[in-house]
User: Which sequence fits this backbone?
């Protein structure tokens, strides 16, 4: 670029290449350099960057109808996409509220939980319980729910008070000699303890990611954890909100990540993979019970944004879901995911500084440690995750870095979330680049 940029970038001093094209799993910059998109940005680009059917669907929709405000109209793409999602959704999820991204989906979920209890006359239910080391978005409500201290710290005076209990983070927090099942029950019990501490009649909802993405690096819960969480929520009339903004839409080898845990939430948030990067779209799915309570009460959800249910975004989402289902891409996630896992374990399983390799489907995290036996992280001042991101990018691989926490409870991570269409040769390239980058920084 020759003229001075007026774009406000995330990192003010980063010198970024200009992305000018996308080709399958690759992004291309102005110099013609190709980058394998090993993290889909942040688990967004599940179909790669040049899916013909999604692009065509967007063009057709723009030509037919670009925008109609949801205060006046519904639209075919929104109606059809909602039906497709509900056909596959777990439990009695029955209604879909479309938004423009993940934070908006979480904001809507929190407000819906509160309004649901109000309309039932349960006006005291106002507490939201979330988990430490979680991320639910960057708007103030979603940030309040999240447990990522680095993101929260400077905005703390503006955040709403919320409770945070332990995540289900077996690698770092399971006691020596404790079975996986016992560990899962122990952490789930923290939810009950917190509900009792706050007063059972004052808790409106519990929110969690089935597979923790941006903060822990693809950490699934241990078997039995979410079943116990569901029981506790039911026992105390607390709504269960599952945030699948990152891990949903097939990423983990199930259309909805919670399917693997055999648990259905009362409210489910999805985004990223729903639009696959072709359009900004997210959604909040809620149960029949919640919808009927509001429909039979005030009849009005006190929430909304200008672009909810945007027809072009919905048309993109509809085309994405069709691709996932018609091309059987969820099975592909399972088969290619198994190959990615095998390749990661083969290449890095014995690496002196790779403490843990975890994930599901095409969602994998590598936790880096200074000392494997003690699981001791590198000092965060070393900025290892950032250095690794840079070295991998230079080698032609995009992967998503997460710095370790200052308190040393979590080390630096790298997250991999490649497109579902990746070939075996792409897996080999991704692993080679990562290996080269690790060699350079460690
Ligand atoms: N929830 C989870 C689990 C996420 O990973 C993210 C983003 O990374 C969000 C919410 C926020 O989504 P968005 O960035 O689209 O607002």
Assistant:
């Amino acid at each position: 670029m020759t003229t001075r940029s007026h774009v406000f970038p995330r990192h003010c001093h980063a010198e970024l290449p200009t992305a000018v094209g996308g080709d399958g799993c690759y992004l291309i910059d102005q110099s013609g350099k190709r980058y394998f998109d090993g993290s889909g940005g942040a688990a967004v680009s599940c179909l790669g960057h040049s899916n013909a059917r999604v692009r065509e669907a967007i063009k057709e929709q723009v030509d037919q109808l670009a925008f109609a405000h949801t205060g006046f109209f519904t639209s075919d793409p929104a109606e059809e996409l909602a039906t497709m999602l509900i056909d596959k959704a777990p439990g009695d999820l029955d209604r879909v509220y479309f938004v423009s991204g993940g934070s908006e989906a979480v904001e809507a979920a929190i407000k819906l939980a509160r309004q649901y209890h109000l309309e039932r006359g349960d006006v005291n239910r106002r507490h939201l319980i979330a988990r430490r080391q979680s991320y639910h978005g960057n708007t103030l409500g979603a940030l309040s729910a999240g447990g990522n201290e680095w993101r929260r710290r400077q905005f703390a005076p503006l955040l709403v008070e919320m409770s945070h209990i332990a995540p289900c983070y077996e690698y770092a927090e399971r006691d020596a000699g404790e079975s996986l099942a016992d560990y899962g029950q122990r952490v789930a019990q923290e939810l009950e303890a917190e509900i009792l501490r706050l007063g059972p009649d004052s808790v409106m909802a519990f929110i969690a990611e089935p597979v923790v993405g941006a903060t822990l690096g693809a950490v699934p819960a241990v078997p039995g954890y979410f079943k116990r969480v569901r029981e506790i929520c039911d026992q105390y009339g607390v709504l269960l909100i599952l945030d699948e903004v990152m891990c949903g839409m097939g990423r983990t080898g199930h259309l909805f990540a919670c399917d693997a845990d055999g648990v259905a939430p009362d409210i489910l948030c999805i985004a990223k993979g729903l639009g696959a990067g072709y359009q900004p779209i997210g959604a909040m799915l809620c149960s029949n019970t919640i919808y009927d309570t509001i429909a039979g009460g005030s009849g009005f959800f006190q929430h909304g944004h200008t672009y909810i249910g945007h027809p072009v975004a919905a048309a993109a989402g509809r085309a994405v879901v069709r691709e996932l289902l018609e091309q059987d891409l969820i099975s592909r996630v399972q088969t290619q995911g198994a190959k990615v896992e095998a390749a990661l374990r083969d290449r890095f399983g014995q690496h002196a500084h790779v403490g843990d390799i975890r994930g599901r489907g095409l969602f994998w995290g590598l936790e880096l440690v200074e000392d494997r036996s003690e699981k001791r992280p590198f000092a965060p001042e070393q900025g290892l995750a950032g250095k690794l991101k840079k070295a991998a990018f230079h080698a032609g691989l995009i992967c998503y870095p997460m710095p370790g926490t200052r308190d040393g409870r979590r080390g630096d991570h790298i997250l991999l979330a490649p497109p579902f269409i990746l070939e075996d040769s792409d897996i080999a390239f991704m692993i080679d680049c990562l290996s080269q980058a690790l060699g350079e920084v460690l």
Observations:
- The chain has a mean pLDDT of 96.
- The first strand starts at residue 19 and ends at 23.
- The two ends are 34 Å apart (CA to CA).
- The pocket of pyridoxal-5'-phosphate is lined by residues 42, 101-103, 106, 135-137, 209, 213-214, 243, 245-246, 271 (CB under 6 Å).
